[in-house]
Design goal:
alpha/beta, 16% strand, 11 helices, two-stranded antiparallel sheet, 10 strands
Length: 291
């Protein structure tokens, strides 16, 4: 993680922006979106991740929850880090935030304008390409979308841009072909890939911060191993806290999507514990200890 000290802070500096080191994810919340977004901010989350993809997110509900939380907690828009995404039509349902017949540049602009309206803001802190158009390589659509996102950053409408759900070779291609390099890479993070180690190393080498999601749900078997329970017992904390602390200590921004206010507070309490180097090594290799 760039521009940080050895101490784990709740805020990190990256490319001139101060960013919360832990984000609340709003996918699959539906009717609960407004209340849960507000509860997350009230619990202490200052970073909110969403997407203009009605199939899996209610971005307008996120915006309502943000406004509720700002009013209740005497916060200003500038106190929050708001991140949303552009999603291709293939990843959407019928509720599209743009004209699918328009060129990709126009789709990005329309989706972005819709996000600003949903979130009741004049700018975004981070705008993410929700994933390349295909699982292999990058195509002309990806290049056009990225150029449109670069232009949004140049205009000042968004502070930083990034990409999600991307493979190692695809990320290499994006780095080689882009004028504005991604500031963030957000991937589902599996223990069986050493927690996306190759992509995290590429991030470290190119001034990008890795954001990890599904840290718990993607690794249920590995997290139930006795070694994990032993670490949890030593620290008198939950397995979730162990995983989130691990993410923080290896320089990752973790996301949690919990629907429990108690768990929101517990997840943020990950800042208060500390893993040893030996424990970090165990967790890095947790999927391979018997092999």
């Amino acid at each position: 993680m760039s521009d940080t000290t050895d101490q784990i802070s709740r805020l990190v500096k990256h490319r001139g922006l101060t960013i919360p080191a832990f984000l609340y994810g709003t996918a699959w919340k539906e009717a609960q979106t407004e209340a849960l977004t507000s509860a997350a901010i009230e619990s202490g989350f200052l970073g909110i991740d969403t997407a203009n993809q009605r199939r899996h997110y209610d971005e307008a509900g996120v915006g309502k929850g943000i406004q509720l939380a700002l009013a209740k907690n005497n916060l200003q828009r500038g106190d929050l880090f708001l991140q949303t995404k552009f999603t291709y039509a293939a990843g959407q349902d019928h509720r599209l935030p743009y004209d699918p017949k328009a060129d990709y540049t126009t789709q990005v602009r329309q989706s972005f304008a819709s996000s600003l309206e949903h979130l009741n803001t004049s700018y975004l802190d981070s705008y993410i390409l929700h994933g390349p158009a295909s699982s292999q390589g990058l195509n002309d659509a990806d290049r056009e979308v990225w150029r449109a996102m670069e232009n949004l950053q140049k205009s000042g409408s968004v502070k930083l841009i990034g990409v999600s759900n991307i493979g190692f070779e695809q990320l290499q291609l994006l780095l080689e072909g882009s004028e504005v390099k991604p500031a963030f890479v957000q991937n589902r993070c599996y223990a069986r890939t050493h927690w996306d180690a190759r992509i995290r190393a590429l991030c470290d080498a190119n001034d990008m911060i890795y954001q990890g999601f599904s840290l718990l749900t993607a690794n249920s078997v590995e997290l139930n191993r006795p070694e994990m329970h032993s670490i949890s017992k030593r620290l008198s904390c939950s397995l979730a806290q162990v995983v989130f602390r691990f993410a923080l200590q290896v320089g990752m921004i973790p996301l949690t999507g919990t629907t429990s206010k108690n768990h929101m507070q517990e997840d943020l309490a990950s800042y208060e514990i500390e893993l040893t180097e030996e424990e970090i090594d165990i967790i890095k290799n947790i999927a391979f200890l018997d092999k």
